[in-house]
Amino acid sequence: MTTIPVHLTGFADQYQKNPRAAAQAWFAQAGFGLFMHYGLYALHGKGDWGMFNEAMPLAEYERLADRFTAERFDADFITDLACEAGCRYVNLTSKHHDGFLLWDSANCAYNSMHSAARRDLVGELTEQCRRKGLGLFLYYSYALDWHHPWFFSLEYFDRARPQYPSPEPSYRFANAEDFRRYIDDAHAQLTELLSNYGPLAGIWFDPEMAYYAQYDLFPVAETYALIRRLQPHALISFKQGANGDEDFAAPEGRGQKIEEKIRARLGEETLHRARAAWAAHAGKRGEICDTLSWAWSYHDNNPAHHISADQAMAKLAEAWQRNCNLLLNTGPEPDGAIPAPDIATLREMGRRIRAGDLPAENGSPFVSMKSRK
Predict the structure, then answer these.
(1) Residue 334 to residue 42: CA distance in whole angstroms
(2) CA 195, CA 1: separation in Å to the nearest integer?
(3) Which of 248, 127, 139 is nearest to 190 (CA)?
(4) In whole angstroms, what separates CA 347 from the centre of its chain?
(5) Is 0.90 topped by the overall pTM?
(6) pLDDT tens-digit map of 310-332
(7) Coil, helix or strand for 248?
(8) 139: which strand partners?
(9) Which domains does the chain have, with CATH numbers?
(10) Are 123 and 94 in contact (CB under 8 A)?
């Protein structure tokens, strides 16, 4: 008998027949997940877009790895907290737009094992999720990489690179054919994640705007086929959707008006193409990603801007009413610790969930969550 991923043990019969369908059924009942944006940008203190927004020189940004100790990144505590909050899965930024990897990669030395931490954070979180029956999604910035030498240039998309006053010498992209070098490395990295870290719940791609701007350069069908070959049950998301073959859509829940952005920046034809992909997700269980503070990752101004349990429960109710799970994000502090206000909110959410203090009409398939203690 095929070994069943621990988060799918309740779907064993279905898994034996169709692993992907079993995972989709699990996701439709998962309800709530914990998101974490963590990387070198936590040390920079200006958010996950800080390198771009401040046009921080690449060599200077790279030196943050020498101070990246992650000494309080505790996968055991994080997964205990997720379980206590009522989450059924966790999602970690394995690679964000800055290109820094949180795992021990043979493809790219710009990773946490080669930082001051000397640790494989993806591996540590994978082990703890497996022990506790949690699904693990890995966020992967597929459509932006400010570090990779062969990612496309500002002429192709206005956020493809920071607006440096003089050319960055490590950037080598010259024409569309060069971009395949980036794709080959992305596929090698995804192969590592899917081959070395056991059964994942899925891969969560970002960002959609760069993809919509240059959709012909991204071989998403090839990328998705790679994932499904290596882990047939692994679910795929690419925000609202890239080609419609994703397993679920995962729009942001912070008032982002994606249609207006596409129309204004990329034009009506691109919007029409995007809508066609989005339409493929009609009727599917989706996911809303939102934050416990005003920023996705740690920011110097974060301490004054964390939401309450009442606000978080309202986000959960709204997501369920929209036939979506809620993926609620926390931005670990520079040392990897989860901010205390977020811990308090997540614990209170779990207390209310276990007490059955949920909206009467919440759109969730759950009959009762009182047993999830």
Answers:
(1) 5
(2) 20
(3) 139
(4) 22
(5) yes
(6) 999 999 999 999 999 999 999 99
(7) strand
(8) 93, 204
(9) 10-354 (3.20.20.80)
(10) no
